[in-house]
Amino acid sequence: MTVLLRKCLSNAGVTAIFLIFAALIPRESLAQERVLPQAQSEFQLSFAPLVREVIPAVVNVYATQRLQQQSNSPFMNDPFFQRFFGGRGFGVPQSRVQSALGSGVIVSPAGIVVTNNHVIADATDIKIVLSDKREFEAEVILKDELTDLAVLRVVEPTEAFPALELGDSDALEVGDLVLAVGNPFGVGQTVTSGIVSALARTRVGISDYQFFIQTDAAINPGNSGGALVDMSGKLVGINTAIYSRSGGSNGIGFAIPVNMARVVIESAQTGGIVLRPWFGAEMQAVTAEIAESIGMQRPTGVMIAAVGSRGPARSGGLEVGDVILSVDGVDIGGPQALNYRLATRGIGGAASLMVLRRGQEIPVTIGLEAPPEDPPRNETMVDGRNPFSGATVANLSPALAVELRRGFDETGVVVMQIEAQSRANQLRLRRGDIIREVNGKDIQRVDDLVQALGAQVRDWALAVERDGRVIRVVVGS
Fold it and tell me: Same topology for domains 48-274 and 380-476, yes or no?
């Protein structure tokens, strides 16, 4: 850092230094206007007062998973011996503890903590440790794999906990100063500073809802679930991932915007289920070629590639070829941005879209509705002498399609779970497979499948759809 500072000075880059420290002005004035420091004494300002307010609300999260495993006999996985021991191995099962370390943020004095889902996934025991070293048992009240967020609650809280106020991540601008707080590498609570490097990063591949804040504040393993705060001490993001080839920080870190986290937190406190608006259409980004072909000056927005047979997109009058330019007055850069804007609006009311249709901009209103579970899923465990024995299946609805990350307008009978050492497992079925046909009979509902599997036949002719491809096989009874 000293070398960089000297280089800036040698190049008469005093203005650059002013910009770096601009956000160190007292927070009351910062909330009104971003200004440059006016005197040398203002360079002596420190983050310490802000850090003192923030640190008590950031916790370490220790998640453990107790696994049962067999003895370490070299014969345990030998197929010959498994014939006699039924795959149970040798000796008495042993317990093994698998641990994970991350960070979390207290967002309610009642002991509500938000963290990353990957920090506590499959954990059987969770403990949070405050900055003053006090430890508390915690339980999961909501997991949301789509955003990689989880909400915890302190078990039987006996006091009011320090909590961070949720800010507005949409108010962030590139260049704003931020602090990242967490427990990197398990060394203890650590604070790093940086700026917002970019907004609305979508090509990160971390979760289904990709709309991340990028920062150069140092984020390392163990920071996951920690706080990204602005200069008013408000939570603006949940630190989630880094871009790194070595495992350490390269100055490219990503945080989930707090406006997305707010939806998950509120859902955990009100019902334990995250409901997001359903769109009901297939979207694609507007490329330079598409923009030129339809007379747009620049590639922006989202083009409608297909409209579902039902849903807000159809009821709102959207058509194939429409380009959505904005949602509630906010410009849309691509499909992920549209998903983010709708998801953070929540259920209820309507959203106002500006749509480009055949060269004309027209307003369109769509309802903010939850995807319906119609038909009811009717989860059923298949048994008997048939190829699907041991599989749990369900009717595919818009709500279940979202849960399983399926297409927006798919129907049929979907595989939910497969029992180990079952005929369905031998058939190598997977969660998310759609059963299309049994012996030439079209399968639309679970009842259709149960009826078809009740027949006495010598061979089973099956058609199963996986990743858009239909696989046909014939198996014996």
Answer: no
Q: Verify whether residue 224 is a known catalytic residue.
A: yes
Told to judge if 148 belongs to the known catalytic residues of this protein, a careful annotator would answer yes
Q: Domain-by-domain residue ranges, the chain? A: 2-45, 48-274, 281-367, 380-476
Distance CA 352, CA 62 (A): 43
Residues 200 and 181 sit within 8 Å (Cβ to Cβ): no
Q: Are 389 and 404 in contact (CB under 8 A)?
A: no
Angle at 47 between CA 43 and CA 53, to 5 degrees: 150
Contact 263, 225 (CB under 8 A): no
User: For the domain 281-367, what is the CATH superfamily, name and number?
Assistant: PDZ domain (2.30.42.10)
Q: pLDDT digit of tens for each residue in the chain (477 aa)? A: 223 222 332 333 333 333 334 444 454 444 456 676 677 666 667 888 899 999 999 999 998 877 655 545 554 455 544 444 444 444 555 556 667 788 999 999 999 999 999 989 888 899 999 988 899 999 999 999 888 899 999 998 888 999 999 999 999 999 999 999 988 776 778 899 899 988 876 655 555 556 788 998 888 777 888 999 999 999 999 998 766 555 555 668 889 999 999 999 999 988 778 888 999 999 999 999 999 999 999 999 999 999 998 899 999 999 999 999 999 999 998 888 898 899 898 888 899 999 999 999 999 999 999 999 999 999 999 998 999 999 999 999 999 988 888 877 888 999 999 999 899 999 999 999 999 999 999 999 999 999 999 988 889 999 999 988 999 999 987
The secondary element (H helix, E strand) that includes residue 470 is strand 469-476
CATH top-level class for 380-476? Answer: mainly beta
Among candidate residues 148, 216, 230, 322, the one labeled active-site is 148
What is 48-274's CATH number?
2.40.10.120
Q: Which of 103, 108, 118, 207 is catalytic?
A: 118
Catalytic member of 103, 169, 207, 224: 224
Q: Could you give the CA distance from residue 181 to residue 61 in angstroms, rounded to a whole number?
A: 13
